[in-house]
């Protein structure tokens, strides 16, 4: 059977019919058919006869125009001996579908190219770990170009070389695409690390003046936490800014909230309220005394502002109050008066509305109930002394001991220490006046005079305390334990002023 006869036997196939028709119409008994098409046809004839359902394949193959090849006819029936024409070109695509159907129109398909990765899923337990995915194509000889993508970069990232790094707990899909073949492969990444269990800030509130700074310290609890990185944020950067280390910078007067949050997915946030004060308002004040101690009722102390901040404050006035009027009181000028044994605080409060305050602790001791008794003798003043000169000399003598002679309970020595009455009697004794007999009852010494009448050297008597009047509204005395003889510019709540030297 000749080749044409064999083809005629399959003339019911459209593909074969077209070849036969072209051969019959050739005057030179030559026919043109692609060499590869002839071979394909020969193979296909059998394939079509045996597998009639191949037409439904989705694969395709290129074929050549039959006119571009020559096959010589021989005596035994046109067997192809021939040569390939230099005009050989691709002219089309034959396709076939897999699955049902009995048509013989399909063609043989090639195998699809597949892309695979070295891992299809991976779980990270530590954020410091990493994974490099390796892609492989099922067909060799292709110059591959890969594109990498992560479905959630907050969970895991991937670089151009397929290196995957975990970022926070969660799940992400890494997709690799080969650009030439459009094939893809995927790897599911799961990040499952230990998270932060608690967060604590060193401050819950903060008050600053403009341009001042303060640092809020954050403590993360959970030693095994994979990610301890924190995120800081200000609710209003026009009022206060914060950097990545919790350093807060005051910008302008107002209120803002500084938030500190975990970034490992644990969703823990702590906050600190920040108040930036008006620079024209007082921020801080301090007093000239850190504490005041009274022995008896014979002394007063003057409290004043020692320092205030900021220096640009427009109003530095304060009001004065006491926490216990039964112990000590204070007037509008800050002068403190002891009242009775005990402790209290004198508080200065700014009047500009800033709320700035300062306080001074006050201790009163040595106050005793005075019991009047009749004097047991008269004070004798020597006849040969000049009264006026002596009076002034008493003050001058008393001044010699200011600042260095210590208070000693029961002391009477002007070289080692004295108490309040011992100091009075020892000074007066320097001028031949003996007051030792009424040392504890100096209220009976001489006669009483008013403050308007008082002269230098007069004795000021308090409940439980005595002092020498300086003639100018102040006093010299031995105040209490822990202090030296002092010259105070104020006399306070006295009981009586006694004139011994007329």
Summarize the structure.
By secondary structure, this protein is mainly beta. Strand 37 (475-477) and strand 38 (486-488) form a beta hairpin. The chain is rod-shaped.
How are the SSEs ordered, and which strands pair?
Blueprint: H1 3-8, H2 14-24, H3 35-50, E1 60-64, E2 69-70, E3 83-84, E4 90-95, E5 115-117, E6 121-124, E7 131-132, E8 135-137, E9 146-150, E10 156-158, E11 163-166, E12 170-178, E13 183-191, E14 198-201, E15 205-208, E16 213-215, E17 218-221, E18 230-234, E19 240-242, E20 247-250, E21 254-262, E22 269-276, E23 284-287, E24 292-295, E25 301-302, E26 305-309, E27 318-322, E28 328-330, E29 335-338, E30 342-350, E31 357-365, H4 387-399, E32 412-413, E33 417-418, H5 420-429, E34 447-449, E35 459-462, E36 465-469, E37 475-477, E38 486-488, E39 496-499
Parallel strand pairs: 6-13, 15-22, 24-31
Antiparallel strand pairs: 1-4, 2-3, 5-8, 7-11, 9-12, 10-11, 12-13, 14-17, 16-20, 18-21, 19-20, 21-22, 23-26, 25-29, 27-30, 28-29, 30-31, 32-33, 34-39, 35-36, 35-39, 36-37, 37-38
What are the salient characteristics of this protein?
5 helices, 4-stranded mixed beta sheet, mainly beta, 11% helix, 502 residues, 6-stranded antiparallel beta sheet
